Amino acid sequence: MTSSAHDVVVIGGGVTGAGVARDLARGGASVRPCGKDCYGGGTSGAASGMIHGGPRYLEFDWRTTRLSAGDAGKIVRIARHMVHRVVFLLPVMPGDKHNIERLETAMEVYDRFQPLKLSNPHLRLTPAEARQLEPALSDEMVGAMTMEEWGVDPHRLTFGNVQDAIENGARAINHSRVVDLIRDGANVLGVRYRGADGSLNEARAKVTVNATGPWSPSLGKMAGVPIDLRPAKGIPIVYDPRGGHSADRLDPADRPGLPLVVGALATVRRRDWVPFQSGIRAGVDSVMVGHLNVPALDATAPTSMSAAVMRARRQDLGYRGVVISDDLQMGALSPQYPPPVAAVRFLSNGGDMVVVSHDLAVADATDDAIHAAVLNGTYPRAQLDASVQKLLNLALKFMPQSRVRRSASSP
Ligand SMILES: Cc1cc2nc3c(=O)[nH]c(=O)nc-3n(C[C@H](O)[C@H](O)[C@H](O)COP(=O)(O)OP(=O)(O)OC[C@H]3O[C@@H](n4cnc5c(N)ncnc54)[C@H](O)[C@@H]3O)c2cc1C
C-alpha cells in the first residue's frame, strides 16, 4: 500500500472532476484526481459533443442561460483549438406549436446571449434557402431559423483539463477506483483506492471532492451522506448520414479502397436515394457521382463506371440535369480504371463532365481519349454536343454572359 498527502483529492475523471482539478492546480493547490477508468470514460464521453449555451432555459430561467453562455465563452477562449461552430437548422412546419414568428422571437432573445459565447446571431431562412442547405427538408416547410452553438470532442476537452492540471503540479491517476473513504467520524480525510495493478492505496487530503456524476450516490453512501439522484435517459436520435450514401466501410474484397454500400435494392432505394430525390425535386443543377461499390445496383462495376446506375439516376429519379464524375484520379478507382478509360466510360454511359484534378498530363491524355472515342463512335457526337449545351446553359445561369466563352466547342 502507498500513501500520499495532498490539499485536495478529486474523485471522478469526467469533465467536472478534470475541470475542478485544473482550476485548483492552477490556483496553487496540490491535487490528486482519481478516476476509476479512462478520463472522460463516464457520462462526459457519452455526451453529444455540444457546449450548451442554454437556450432551453430561456422560457423560465434566464440566469441559467446567462451562466451557460458565459461558461461556453470561457471554454471557447481557453480552448479555441478544440471547439468548432455548430449551426443548427430549425425548420418550421405548418401547425407547429412554435410557429415561425414565435420561434424567431425566442431566437431574438437568445441572440442577446450569443456575444457571451462569441457566437453569431440567428438567421431566418426561406424554405428555398433552407433546402439549399438540407435538400431533404419537406416541401411543406414554412421557413427555418439557424442557431449557433459550439461543438467539442468531450474526450479531448476532459483530457485537456487533466493535462493542464498535471502541468500545474497535479498528480493524476486514472484506473484508480475509490473503494472507501478515510474518515474520522463525519470528517472525510481522504480516500482508499484500488490502482490499475490491483493494489490498495491511500491518498489523504484536507478536502475530498465528489465529482462522480451519476455515481455520486455510491460515494455519498461511503461518506454516510444520502444523495438522491434519479438518473434520466438521454435519447439521441441517429439518422443515416445526410446528403449522400450510407457507406461506412471500405470494400475489403472485390474492389479494395472503394466504400461499400450494403443492402438489397429496396433498402438502397429507400435509404440512399432519398437525398438525391429531394435534391432533384428541389431543382439542383448538377449531381456528382461518387466512386462506390453498391452491389445491389451493379455487382460488376463501381457506381461511377456503371451504365445501370446512370440509367437509374436518369430514369428512376427522372434527373435531366448535369451529371459530373468524382475525381477520376482517385486512388480507389484509377488502378482498375485509368482516367482516360474511365472518362470515356463515364461519358458514354450518360455523364456530362469528368473531373481529373491532379496532373495536367493525365488530364491531357484523358482529353485525347475522349476525342478519339468521339471520332471512332464509342462516344456518340450527338451525346457530346448535348452535354456541352447543358454545361453552357449552366454557365449562363451562374456567370455574367460576357464571361462565358461561347466558343467552347466539341471536337
Ligand atoms: C446522452 C447524453 C448526451 C449529453 N450531451 C451533452 C451535450 O451535448 N452537451 C453538454 O454540455 N452536456 C451533455 N450531456 C450532459 C453531460 O454529459 C454531463 O453533464 C457531464 O458529462 C457530467 O460530467 P461529470 O464529470 O459530472 O460526470 P461523468 O463524466 O460521468 O464523470 C464521473 C466520473 O466518475 C468516475 N467514478 C465513478 N465512481 C468512481 C469511483 N468510485 N472512483 C473513481 N472514479 C469514479 C467515473 O468513472 C466517471 O468517469 C449529455 C448527457 C448524456 C447522458
Describe, in plain words, how this protein is organized in 3D.
- It is built from 13 helices and 14 strands.
- It is elongated.
- The protein has helices spanning 15-26, 43-46, 62-78, 100-111, 127-133, 154-167, 216-223, 265-272, 274-281, 307-316, 339-348, 360-376, 381-398; strands spanning 3-11, 31-34, 50-51, 83-92, 124-125, 143-152, 177-184, 187-194, 200-210, 249-250, 259-260, 286-289, 322-327, 353-355.
- It is α/β, with parallel strands linked by helices.
- Helix 1 (15-26) links the parallel strand 1 and strand 2 (31-34).
- Strands 2-1-9-8-7 form a five-stranded mixed β-sheet.
- The protein has three domains: 3-45 and 155-223, FAD/NAD(P)-binding domain (3-Layer(bba) Sandwich), CATH 3.50.50.60; 51-66 and 87-151, no CATH class; 249-403, Glycoside hydrolase, family 3, N-terminal domain (TIM Barrel).
- The structure holds flavin-adenine dinucleotide.
- Flavin-adenine dinucleotide (FAD) binds next to helix 1, helix 2, strand 3 and strand 7.
CATH domain class name of the largest domain:
Alpha Beta
Strand element count: 14
User: What would you call the structural class?
Assistant: alpha/beta
CATH superfamily of the largest domain: Glycoside hydrolase, family 3, N-terminal domain
Biggest beta sheet attributes: 5 strands, mixed
Q: What is the H-and-E element order?
A: EHEHEHEHEHEHEEEHEEHHEHEHEHH
Arrangement of strands in the largest sheet: 2-1-9-8-7
How large is the count of helical segments? 13
Overall helicity: 25-40%
Low-confidence stretches: 406-411
Q: What's the multimeric state?
A: single chain
Task: Return the domain count.
Answer: 3
